[in-house]
Amino acid sequence: MIDLLASRIYYLVAFSLLGVGTYMMIGNQNLVKKVIGMNIFQTGIFLFFIVTAFVEGGSPPLLTAPEPHVSPLPHVLILTAIVVGVSLTAVALGLIVRIYNEYGTLNEEAIQKVTTDE
């Protein structure tokens, strides 16, 4: 059992990151902490994809390389997802700055209270 957990430690870390990120997005009322939770969740997804793409004894996919080959597709997808994640974070933080300038708080409940009173 211990050997199985030790060989799958990256999966445990990935799912732990997914859990922490989900908890931060749902459990916090602060908008900046929600964005941080979203980034932690994304990191868990990135780690999961990279871990599942690992091939023991794999080589680069060249014509002269022996079997088995490692697919470069998951790595390319993760690079693209990192760029999209950074862009999403920048837009979210820009919106948070505008929300703070408008309402003077980053607490989600306070913002909802102000918007329902108007």
UniProtKB/TrEMBL annotation:
Gene3D superfamilies named in the record: 1.10.287.3510
Pfam family, one: Oxidored_q2
Keyword flag Transit peptide: no
Compartments reported by the entry: Membrane
InterPro entries reported in the protein's UniProt record: CPA3_antiporter_subunitC (IPR050601), NUOK/Mnh_C1-like (IPR039428)
GO cellular component, one term: membrane
Chief localization: membrane
Highest taxon in the source lineage: Archaea
Protein topology in the membrane: Multi-pass membrane protein
Keyword tags: Membrane, Transmembrane, Transmembrane helix
Residues annotated as transmembrane: 6-26, 38-55, 75-97
Name assigned to this protein: Multisubunit sodium/proton antiporter, MrpC subunit
Source organism: Haladaptatus litoreus
